[in-house]
Here is the input.
Amino acid sequence: MLSPLSNRPEPAATPFVELDSVSLRYGENGTLAIERVDLAIRPGEFATVVGPSGCGKSTLMKLVTGLLPPTSGAVRVAGNNVNGPLKIVGMAFQNPTLLPWRNTLANTMLPLEIVQPHRSRLQRHKQEYVAQAQQLLASVGLEGFDQKQPWMLSGGMQQRASLCRALIHQPELLMLDEPFAALDAFTREELWCVLQDLWLERKFTCILVTHDLREAAFLADVIFVMSARPGRIVAVHRIDLPRPRTLDLTYEPHFVEIVHKIRTEIAQARNENRAAAPVIARAAS
Here is the structure.
């Protein structure tokens, strides 16, 4: 049986997402957010990014999606250099950001009004798209809620709708920025299983940014551990746990071992950063 946590080399594969020595500084003399980040994610892989607050996890998201250009280095997605916002990406955030004047179905279908080729086809094939949206909503437990307004839904239901909106245009890459952080523990764990089911069915490439190390270990094929700012990749772990995974797994010793090891790495990176700060300050004075 494979070890549940491994740093061993993986077979060569063409990355779907690749960062090559990427750094980003905000402004000419501003904060260095991330420094010399190398990262490779294979097609259909579920990757999670963890690290202390302010380490550049959200900056990484903006670089991959083309919302920010790197100060140095190269970002490639699907074999192409990223030079602007990507159309093949779906995104969901901590706040579901559902439009209050639209019902659940209309919120879910919003990307179809924006992203080509769906935008050109939407009016002619409206019923086909409506059926797809309703099927997607049903798959996350929202059957019968398609005509409800956002304020009629619980926080967990709103986040389910947000996931559906991110996936309705069948993106090749799903980017998730702490989508479950504001939810209670029970709802959060329930949505881990919902997201895993969607990923197993559709096999899109996924990058999840999270502070929850249990969440990262439960969902990931690969975990990237970042240092404190400026963010660097200090460890990469491949999670060899069988799928589909159940919540019972999170109480087993080998799962706890994974979480503990990653927590220790983050704490060590934070401590090293704090120790280096006075040295840097003295050098600058």
User: Anything to note?
Assistant: The radius of gyration is 20 Å.
